[in-house]
Amino acid sequence: MFQVKLGEWWRRSAVRIAVLAVLVVGFAAALVWRVQSPADAGKPYQVPQDRQLESSLGIRISQAAVVADGGLVEIRYTVLDGQKASKFQNDVHHPPLLHSERRNGDVYRAALMKQGHELRPGQTYYILYLNNANAIRSGETLEIDAGGARLQHVPVR
Question: Per residue in 78-113, pLDDT tens?
């Protein structure tokens, strides 16, 4: 009689363990699928391009981001023409102006990052700006005025 009860207990336990194992594997598979789902991916970051700005300055804007706890705005650019980009980089008295497209606020105090050598095409460099009165905010868009050209709707990270 004891052997019958033990056998019955073992069969019930085996079924419980199998059901539990299937549930754990199913939950893990659902979790992996959810993490890898393309629906969860954020919107791709894409900066508009302007041929006039690119041809006059020799650069292509690749990113705008609020950094340093909101105190700075970083503009990243890729060099297209080394000579024009060097001229742009060396013009510390006329940096591009940044305008918030959502509120009244301009950012104009730049620390141009002089690299100390001729800028190479394909390389990415940056300019830092003091973010006056939190004029530029992450998640919004800005306008860049540079060298008589204007680049609008630049998303800010």
Answer: 999 999 988 888 887 888 999 999 988 888 888 766
Question: Residue 27 and residue 46: Cα distance in Å, rounded?
Answer: 35
Look at the chain and count its residues.
157
Q: Kindly report the backbone phi and psi dihedral angles of residue 155, in degrees, each rounded to the nearest multiple of 5, phi listed first.
A: -70, 140
Residues 7 and 74 occupy one common structural domain: no
Task: Please check whether residue 50 is in contact with residue 153, taking contact to mean a CB–CB distance below 8 angstroms.
Answer: no
Q: Tokens at residue 146, please? A: 């540079």
Do 142 and 116 belong together in one domain?
A: yes
**pTM value surpassing 0.90:** no
Distance (Å, whole) CA 83 – CA 70: 33
